[in-house]
């Protein structure tokens, strides 16, 4: 089964959604709408989901999309201003030229290729992302790391195709991640992609047209010795157990200070050899928490296809077949591969205490 069409659609939609997000970040001090879980959600979250779901609904209309957002807050009283902003930003990035609305226009569609985008379009596209897990579905986090987005730091547009519980295609759009690993002063903006069994790659991102750019293969860091390796972990303390994660990293031989960043950009850091370990362990405050599928599916396949390993803290594969939560998994362990078993042994000893 070839998945090149799915990959091309994923790359194009994520590249366009990332463009929308960066337009919002440059031009708009993000107005946060508070969801029930009190996490911030912005015009960019809604707009990115609208863009990606527009692509997917046009090219793969039978595929459900399991996304993070819905349009209820935009439709509600007080949501009109944000909805108008989403319509404005989406209209800049949607191109109607070519099959399925795929955009190959750097900087957005040319005037002759535009069609007026209205509020009903946008809310319909957003709610196309309210599908359910099935035998074949897409899962989307329109902005993974919203707090990083608001801070002017790392975030990712994360999209994955899951077939029979196995992630087959994954794309991460990371507009703020340096193109050269570790070079914070260099150019920023990268797309990471992977297809099961075909390896992982990176493309320089600089707008919608970058989806068709050169694909450069990537690999995790090699070797079993952790000397000089780094760990990457979440900025938010509530997203893990920083103390236990530091202990496990030391036991695995990682002595350098961890790099903290938001979003699945952490998966990208492992996939391209910038870090050898990413741990997301249950917080002491929420020990029974289970991870959302959209927070890990795209990143997991990128790391695995780059030669790394991804499991939960007990060594079980991440389960994307059951529902929106990975109910049979606790925590996430992402590594370059050679140190994975050591990390799991240390975790088993620590969790058993």
Structural account:
It contains 10 helices and 14 strands. The strands form 3 sheets. It has a 7-stranded mixed β-sheet with strand order 3-4-5-6-7-8-9, with helices on both faces. Helix 1 crosses helix 4, helix 4 crosses helix 5 and helix 8 (265-271) runs parallel beside helix 9. The protein has 353 residues and is α+β, with helices and mostly antiparallel strands.
What percent strand? 15-25%
Report the order of strands and helices: HEEHEHHHEHEEEEEEHEHEHEEH
Outline type: globular
Low-confidence parts: 97-109
Mean pLDDT: 88
Which structural category do the helix and sheet elements fall into? alpha+beta
Largest sheet properties? 7 strands, mixed
Give the strand line-up of the largest sheet. 3-4-5-6-7-8-9
Radius of gyration: 19 Å
Tell me the number of helical segments per DSSP (H or I, 4 or more residues long): 10
- Share of residues in helices: 25-40%
Secondary-structure map:
Blueprint (H helix, E strand, L loop, with lengths): L3 H24 L5 E2 L5 E2 L1 H17 L5 E3 L4 H4 L4 H14 L25 H9 L8 E9 L1 H6 L4 E8 L2 E13 L9 E8 L4 E5 L11 E2 L13 E3 L8 H10 L7 E2 L4 H7 L5 E4 L16 H9 L3 E3 L20 E4 L4 H12 L2
Parallel strand pairs: 3-4, 10-11, 10-12
Antiparallel strand pairs: 1-2, 4-5, 5-6, 6-7, 7-8, 8-9, 12-14, 13-14
Helix pairs in contact: 1-2, 1-4, 2-4, 2-5, 4-5, 7-10, 8-9
